[in-house]
Structures are given as structure tokens and as C-alpha cells.
Amino acid sequence: MTAVMQIRDLHLRFPTGRSLADFVTGRPGREVKALNGVDLDLKRGETLGVVGESGCGKSTLARCIVRLHTPSEGSIEFEGQDIFGKASRDDRSYYRRVQMMFQDPYSSLNPRMTTGQILTEALKVHNMRPEADIPARVAELLDLVRLPQDAQGKLPHEFSGGQRQRIAIARALAVEPEVLIADELVSALDVSVQAQVVNLLLELQQELGLTILFVAHDLRLVRHVSNRVAVIYLGRIVEIGDSETLFSAPSHPYSQALLSAAPSLNPDNRGAVTRLEGELPSPLNMPKGCPFHIRCRHANDVCRKDVPALQPFEGRGEVACHHVKEINAYA
Amino acid sequence: MSMEDQKPILEVNELNTTFHRNGRALPAVRDVSFSVARGEVLGLVGESGSGKSVTLRSIIGLARRYGDVTGQVRWKGSDLVAMPDRVLRHKQGREIAMIFQEPMTSLNPLLTVGLQLEESLRAHTDLQRKARHDRAVEMLDLVGIPSAAQRLKDYPHQFSGGMRQRVMIAIALAANPKLLLADEPTTALDVTIQAQILDLILRLAQDMDMGVVLVTHDLGVVAQTCDNLAVMYAGRIVEQGPVRDVLRAPGHPYTVGLMRSVPENLPPRTPLSSVPGVPPSLDALPTGCVFAPRCSSCIEPCLQDRPALTLITDRRQVACFNPVTNAKGNVA
Ligand SMILES: Nc1ncnc2c1ncn2[C@@H]1O[C@H](COP(=O)(O)OP(=O)(O)OP(=O)(O)O)[C@@H](O)[C@H]1O
Ligand SMILES: Nc1ncnc2c1ncn2[C@@H]1O[C@H](COP(=O)(O)OP(=O)(O)OP(=O)(O)O)[C@@H](O)[C@H]1O
Ligand code: SF4
Ligand code: SF4
Ligand SMILES: [Mg+2]
Ligand SMILES: [Mg+2]
User: Fold this and answer.
1) Nearest-CA residue for atom 24 of ligand 2
2) Total number of domains constituting chain B
3) Most exposed of A42, A122, A229, B158 (fewest Cβ within 10 Å)?
4) Which chain B residues are closer than 8 Å to A201 by Cβ?
5) CA-CA distance, B226 to B242, in Å (whole number)?
6) Which residues are registered as beta bridge partners of A6?
7) Best residue for ligand 3 mutational test, from A236, A276, A303 (most atoms within 8 Å of Cβ)
8) Same domain for B37 and B170
């Protein structure tokens, strides 16, 4: 599989206000370091899952890809072209080819437009079809996401959460994108509706050859839909690899702790969890060395000094940890 | 456990809550009965709109402000449904606490977190000023907010979403309630913080004899925290019993459908099973079993009569004419 999207050394810092203490001591304003050097290839036709604790930068990464944020450093190339470069900026087709779907479709769907109007608008903005062919295409899109044709005349609030999510998917698909960015797409839905939406995504991916970036807290779901998974910690990828391999044998101490916190469906497996000590450090105050060393029970002096690089580890994908060999020696 | 311990502290009998909209009656909760013992956690699951939140709001006396609530909620020898507002208000927050589904909207953005915690303690406990402050620090600490003493001076917007949710949990638990009604308390949290919060709730249930009703859509959370489980569909409980029994061998076709929707022990990227169709609207419920239009086990009687909740094993109740007998959930 070839890379559609190449992300290199991506950094994003959000400036925050200067505190009184900053003024008094003449310190410059502080920065939230949301992304700290993300390297990632998105391969054509794959689903890449992204997991990590709240605040680790998952949404920020997704928003950079659709150009809602401009990175402070680093680059994103789509089919070899820098998406923040002048040529791409002028080329509106990027907005069509890479589509983002949000957690809450209610806030991203205009409450006063019917489903038919919403889809028609999407088709018109990007000149997807000649005027005369639009009604047929709207009907086709509703079929694609398994909504009945009478949905055309209804407003968003007349649908259930899962149905609204399908309208959002239909709108994203209207413009025939190649890449879908799904940020917590199904998190607010109950399990049987989640299953319906996930099935739809898997099917559409097969039919249309879509590439999907799938961000979610539900690890069981990420494991099920993803080909590969990236684990993010404090704005860095600490492990990336084949989904089944990573979930069944995570190699980075952070991945190990994170994955073990997923609640098992078996009531007899209670409390079999490697607890993460301490809280996620504030991105205002990045620790030196390995970003995980404050919470890692394997940490030593090297970890407190040097940032470990993401490196291939024994056929298990890539891992950023100085001691990955020793840690996984007895596993 | 002695008999005394197992006696329920909360008994809900035939709870019915009806809303009226545009001259139509919406039966949001129908004939709901369950009980919770000291230190016990009851899980409440079901599709969106099945009446989980309205059930909790009916118990604590909020739903009666905008709907008709009938039936009994027996709490410490009295009936909360029949209790006058004045008396009920004294119990809310003090004996019975609720964590709401949208915690982000329940904090006042203009007041510091510490002030809101202490305000709640002033209203619901007899603690003096100094003791209230200490308790506030202790609670923030308990819900895993680092440097609690300093963070009390912060405003809600200075906390991340997950931290704000934990503040709401701290407020609910600060007065040592004997009953906690928790509506999706961990849905917005990542798995590590979720595990921490559920641990805390479980510990309090055990150490302080607190009863808990926990609404969630995560069956993993149910398996890890609950003693008993009740499954709701279209305002009714369709199955209830000990968590192990229900998750091991679900009897109601809807419970089976829910369990099979969870991607567990399935080959990756294969289609998940899901309950086909959508739930009925409350003002157009089918005659007969409310689940019939979506049920693959539907038989003739299902279309005529509504099945009542009946015991199928010694501790498990199912409302179904044709319960599934050897369904395996996807629990290994
Ligand atoms: N517009 C912004 N201004 C300042 N800081 C921001 C902004 N957006 C995000 N951040 C900060 O950047 C960090 C990463 O946030 P992000 O939303 O990417 O996290 P996330 O991994 O998506 O978390 P969650 O799982 O809670 O959605 C956080 O510390 C957040 O507070
Ligand atoms: N104030 C109200 N007025 C009228 N109808 C209401 C009101 N509150 C809730 N309902 C209706 O009662 C039914 C049950 O709602 P409830 O909020 O209890 O569902 P839920 O099971 O908590 O769902 P979710 O998982 O989405 O939170 C729904 O059909 C809802 O639309
Ligand atoms: S580099 Fe050191 S601190 Fe970081 S994860 Fe590996 S062992 Fe732990
Ligand atoms: S009563 Fe009949 S329709 Fe209802 S759940 Fe049971 S089998 Fe299905
Ligand atoms: Mg996010
Ligand atoms: Mg609810």
C-alpha cells in the first residue's frame, strides 16, 4: 500500500495568555505543546486507528489534516504535495478529497435545512453533478447510508442520533472524498447503533476504497475497525503497528497500561489492570527526556535525559522507548 | 452478609412517568420496579431514549416538575413519590446524590471550583467552614485531581473536560450520600480515568454502604462494576438479574442483540451484528410486545399481548413470550 498522506515532524503550539507572574518576571507567554513531532504515513485504503488519553492531541492532529489548524513546524503532504503550500492553498479540491466527520453531527448539521437540502448543498458547492442530476444523486446517497427516501424532507432533529450520524456520513460522501477523518464519530451512540455505523463505514470503505483515520476512546471498537493503530502520548506517537499485534501484545509501557485499562466484558476478570500512576503531565509543562518517564516504572537516568525515537521493534511495528527490548524480554 | 445488609435501601415499585406534549401522552417510563441494597451497584442499560435518565430523575424527584410520576419509590421507610417538595429537597444532595449526564453544563462558569464544592457542602452537611475546606480538598484528591488545594482556586474553564466531569463527581459524593444516581458518569472520559472513577465509586459503595444506580452504554463498564443489571427498552425493564447471569446467558432478544453488537471475540473488520430497525416512538407503541417489530424470535402471541416481567430462573426476570434459551453473549 502506498502512502496517500505523509506527515513529517508535525508540531503545533497553542499560545496561552501570560499570567501575572509571567508579566512580573518578564517571562514570555506560555505555550500548550499539543503536537510534538508526529511522523505518520496514512496508506491508501487503510483504516488507521488513533488512541491515547484525553488531551494528548488526537483531535489537534485530525484538525491539522483538514487544515483547521496550521502547524507551527513540520509538513503534511497529500499525494506528494504540501497541503499548506501555496499551490495546495489555491487548489480547492483538497477540501473535497479529504473530509472530516465530527463527534456531534447535531452541531455540524444546519438545524433548519432538510436532509435533501443539506446533501444538495454539498453537491453544489463542489460542482459534483450537473444541476439536473442532483436529485438522483441525493437519492443514491441516502441508499448508500441506508436511510429511507422520505428522509429527504425531514429536519435533523426528527432523526435519532444514529440516523443523524448517517446524514453526516452521507454529506461527507456526497463530494466523493478519498480520505475520511472520523473523530469520535460513534462515541455518543449506543452499542447497537454504533455497530450499524461501523458496519456502514467498513462496507463503504470496501466499495469506494476509502482511507480512514479513526479516532476513538473505545479501544474495543478501534481494534475491530483498524488495520493499523497509533498510540499517542503528549503529542507524540509512542507506538504504531498492526492493530491485532499491537492490541494483543503492546510493547510500549504506556500502550501496555492504556490497553489494560479497557473494561473487560467478563465479570470474572475484575481488576486485572496495570494502573497508570499519576496524571497526564500538563502540555504547558513538558517533561524533559521521555515524555512518559514521570509515570513509567521502568524509567532510569537515560529516560529522564533523552527523548527516545520511534524505531522498528522486532516485527511489532515501531516503538519509542529506550528500554523496549528489556521490558518485552520476558513477555 | 447478614439479612439486615441485604435488605434493600431503595425499592422502586411500578414507577410510571408520563410527559404531555402537544396534547399527546408520552409514556417515558412504564411499570419499572427494582431494588438496590446497601453497597450494591445496579446497572441500567438500554438504547438511547429508552427512559434511563427519566427513571433516575423520577427517583430523585426532578421529573415530577414537568411530568406525571406515579408508583412508589421507597427510601428509608418513606415514599419519595408522595413526599412534599420541602421534605424531598432536604434529601436531595444529602442522602441521595445525582451525577447528571451533561456535567459540563451543571458547573457555574463564574465561580471557582472550590466555592462550588464548599457551597454544596454547606447546603448538604453540617460541617463548619474549616472542615468544609478540608473536605473539598479531600474530595478533589479522591477523584484524582493533582495539587487539589491549589486547584480549588481555579475556574471551571481552567480544567479539561474530563477534570470538570470529575469535579461534578466530587460534588455529588462530598456529602457522603447513601444513594448515588449516576447517569453516564464516565462516557466522556478516556479508559484510564474511567477506571479510576469507577474504582472510586465502587470503593465508596463498599466502604460507606452506598447504593448505586449506574446508567451506562458500555457493557464492559457494567461487567466490571455492577452487581445487578436491568435492561430497558421503550420505557420498560425487559430483563433484570445478577450481572453474571445476564451477561453469560441473556434471555431477552433485545439483550442478546445489545450484547452481540459489542465487537468482542470477533475476527477484525468483519460486520458487527446489530439490532435491526429503530426504537418505536413513544406515542405510537405497537400493541403487543414493544420490541416485536425488531425481534427475530417474534411469535404469534407477541403481536397480541404485552409480555410481563417474569422469573425465568430463581433470580432472573425477563419480559418475553419466547426468551432465548442458549444465547451466548460474546463473553468468552
Ligand atoms: N484552540 C486551543 N487553544 C489552546 N489549547 C488547545 C486548543 N485546542 C486544543 N488545545 C490543547 O491541546 C491539547 C490537545 O488537545 P486535543 O483536543 O487534540 O486532545 P484530544 O487527544 O483530542 O483529547 P480528547 O480525547 O479529550 O478529545 C490539550 O492540552 C488541549 O487543552
Ligand atoms: N422533559 C421531557 N418532555 C418530554 N419528553 C421527554 C422529556 N424528557 C425526556 N423525554 C422523552 O422520554 C424518553 C426517555 O428519555 P431519556 O432521557 O430517559 O432516555 P435515555 O434512556 O436516558 O436515553 P440516552 O441514552 O439518549 O440518554 C425519550 O423519548 C425522551 O424524548
Ligand atoms: S523510554 Fe524510559 S521512561 Fe520512556 S517509556 Fe521507555 S522505559 Fe519508560
Ligand atoms: S415477546 Fe415476542 S416479540 Fe417480544 S421480545 Fe419476546 S419473542 Fe420478541
Ligand atoms: Mg478530541
Ligand atoms: Mg439519558
Assistant:
1) B48
2) 2
3) B158
4) none
5) 9
6) A41, A77
7) A303
8) no
Render each residue's pLDDT in chain B as its tens digit; 332 residues.
444 557 899 999 999 999 998 888 999 999 999 999 999 999 999 988 899 999 999 999 999 999 999 999 999 989 999 999 999 999 998 999 999 876 566 788 899 999 999 999 999 999 999 999 999 999 988 887 877 888 888 888 777 767 788 899 999 998 899 999 999 888 767 888 888 889 889 988 998 899 999 999 899 999 999 999 999 999 999 999 999 999 999 999 999 999 999 998 889 999 999 888 888 888 889 999 999 999 999 999 999 999 999 998 889 999 999 999 876 655 54
Q: Is residue B332 part of a domain?
A: no
The DSSP bridge partners found for residue B97 are B180
Instruction: Report the residue of chain B nearest A247, measured CA to CA.
Output: B268
* Ligand 4 binding pocket includes B291 (Cβ within 6 Å): yes
Terminal Cα-to-Cα distance of chain B (whole angstroms) = 30
C-alpha cell at A190: 449506543
Q: Can you give the pTM of this predicted structure?
A: 0.88
Which residue range(s) make up the domain with B86? 8-95+177-264+273-318
How many Cα atoms occupy the beta-carbon half-sphere of A76 within 13 Å? 24
- Which chain B positions have a beta carbon within 8 Å of A275's beta carbon? 195
Q: Are residues B118 and B220 in the same domain?
A: no
Q: Is A323's C-beta closer than 6 angstroms to any atom of ligand 3?
A: yes
Interface contact A25, partner B, CB < 8 A: no
What was the ipTM of the complex prediction?
0.83
| Structural domains of chain A, ranges and CATH numbers in brackets | 3-330 (3.40.50.300)
Inter-residue contact A204 to B58 (CB < 8 Å): no
Ligand 3 mean position, distance from CA A279 (Å): 16
Place of cell 451466548: B328
B207 and B297 in a single domain? The answer is: yes
Per DSSP, the three-state class of A158 is helix
| Residues B80 and B214 reside in one and the same domain | yes
- Return the amino acid letter for B280: P
Ligand nearest to the CA of B190: 1
Q: Which residue of B104, B141, B274 to mutate against A (max A Cβ within 10 Å)?
A: B274
How many CB contacts within 8 angstroms connect chain A with chain B?
A: 133
User: Which residues are A32's β-sheet partners?
Assistant: A14
Among B47, B52, B51, B24, smallest CA distance to B279 is for B47
Mind telling me how many Å the CA of A173 is from chain B's nearest CA? 20
Q: Is residue B327 part of a domain?
A: no
